[in-house]
Amino acid sequence: MRDGRGEKDRKCVRAQNAIEELGDGHTSRIRWMFLRRHVKDCGECGAFLERMSAVVEALSEMRRLSAPSDFASLVMARLAGGSTGATAEPAEEPRVRHTLLWVAAASLGVAIGLALAIQRWIIGKEGKEKFAAASSV
């Protein structure tokens, strides 16, 4: 005997993983098709997709920062310092770390935003086509 709730939970876990993969830009075509079908029938996963879309939009609106011109040399100096924690310019470390985090967050935000924008465009396009087909009947 199969538990209907357990099956739904497994599908929701798969859908939420697919949404996260979509944000990373690594969703396969099969998982994308599964996700589209699932969010139409599952309000919880549809809401999760909307929340993730809002996060992506917020991240995409963040100001982009450029890495400092001496970023590569600071990284190489840190690597050369080994596990001793010594750096060539200790006063620069917090600024470089802070900048690197912002650059990584902004890049992730742009990637997620682009993936979700494409997803919304595809779903919207399909919805318009179905509406047009239903209206012509």
From TrEMBL:
It comes from the Bacteria. The chain crosses the membrane at residues 100-118. Keywords: Membrane, Transmembrane, Transmembrane helix. This is Zinc-finger domain-containing protein.
